[in-house]
């Protein structure tokens, strides 16, 4: 008899992105280009690989503290200060997770109760759908409109109410490539402050911005204390298999 699955598990299927990759490899030697999954095609930095080899040789292989190895949290704080000028407290404000994927799930579980509402821009990176289901949140979708994938401020405003606990912002955005402007992030920040909402931002593509600086909503006035900023090694450092976020 097969194992009976939960009602939650029955609500979603296999990742579309991973299914596409599976089909791609199943095509055998027929020509094809896999545009589905974000596998960077450059090697991970030499220094990072050397440090990993050194750590293995030095027997650094026991449990880290639950919120991540101290040295890594301090390195993340230094890197954040280098790029954005603000140094988060590595003891209180940084948590290491198994990739941005786990960080998003953990952030939603930490912030949202069943029945709360979470604003999600669509089209969205596919994981946010199951994340919302697993956290028990009701997603409120707000459309990013073609051709520039901007949102209508009236539509966004209408999505907020006193049940809204969080908004998920993914900038630069997958799948559209949209980069949210400072003005758009300011409009979102105003709504977050008006409705006491937490901004959960997926900034895994923060270093793939080709015009102007990357703008973090956490750096806008009044947002530092109400933003959970998520990023990871996968894309920038070409290390999707390391699962570090
Ligand atoms: C927007 C976005 N967030 C997160 C991830 C995955 O991040 P990680 O590998 O750190 O779990 C991806 C991968 O495609 C992505 O596109």
Helix and strand composition category: alpha/beta
Q: State the major sheet.
A: 5 strands, parallel
The shape, in one word, is: globular
- Give a list of the ligands: pyridoxal-5'-phosphate
EC number: 2.6.1.-
Enzyme class: transferase
GO cellular component, one term: cytoplasm
Organism: Capsulimonas corticalis
Task: Write a brief caption for the model.
The chain has 245 residues and is of the alpha/beta class. Helix content is 34%, strand content 11%. Pfam families: Aminotran_1_2.
Verbal overview:
34% of the residues lie in helices and 11% in strands. It has a domain at 107-232: Aspartate Aminotransferase, domain 2. It has 245 residues and is α/β, with parallel strands linked by helices. The chain starts with 6 loop residues before the first helix and ends in a 15-residue tail after the last strand. It has a five-stranded parallel sheet with strand order 2-1-3-4-5, with helices on both faces. The protein has helices at 7-10, 16-26, 46-57, 70-84, 99-111, 128-135, 153-159, 182-195, and strands at residues 117-122, 138-143, 164-170, 198-202, 227-230. Helix 5 packs parallel to helix 6. Pyridoxal-5'-phosphate binds next to helix 5. It comes from Capsulimonas corticalis. Its cofactor is pyridoxal 5'-phosphate. This is Aminotransferase. It holds the Pfam family Aminotran_1_2. Residues 32-245 form the Aminotransferase class I/classII large domain.
């Amino acid at each position: 008899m097969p194992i009976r699955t939960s009602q939650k598990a029955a609500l979603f299927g296999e990742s579309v992105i991973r299914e596409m990759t599976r089909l791609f490899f199943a095509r055998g030697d027929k020509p094809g280009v896999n545009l589905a999954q974000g596998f960077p095609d450059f090697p991970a930095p030499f220094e990072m690989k050397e440090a990993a080899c050194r750590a293995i040789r030095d027997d650094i292989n026991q449990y880290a503290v639950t919120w991540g190895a101290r040295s890594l949290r301090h390195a993340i704080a230094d890197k954040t200060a280098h790029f954005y000028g603000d140094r988060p407290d590595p003891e209180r404000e940084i948590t290491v997770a198994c990739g941005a994927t786990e960080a998003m799930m953990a952030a939603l579980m930490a912030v949202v109760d069943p029945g709360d509402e979470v604003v999600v821009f669509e089209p969205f990176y596919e994981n946010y759908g199951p994340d919302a289901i697993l956290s028990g949140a009701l997603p409120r979708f707000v459309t990013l409109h073609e051709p520039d994938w901007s949102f209508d401020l009236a539509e966004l405003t209408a999505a907020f109410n006193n049940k809204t606990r969080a908004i998920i912002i993914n900038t630069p955005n997958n799948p559209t490539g949209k980069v949210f402007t400072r003005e758009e992030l300011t409009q979102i920040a105003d709504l977050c402050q008006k409705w006491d909402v937490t901004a959960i931002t997926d900034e895994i593509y923060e270093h793939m911005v080709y015009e102007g600086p990357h703008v973090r909503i956490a750096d806008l006035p009044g947002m530092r204390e109400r933003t959970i900023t998520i990023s990871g090694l996968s894309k920038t450092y070409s290390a999707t298999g390391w699962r570090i976020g």
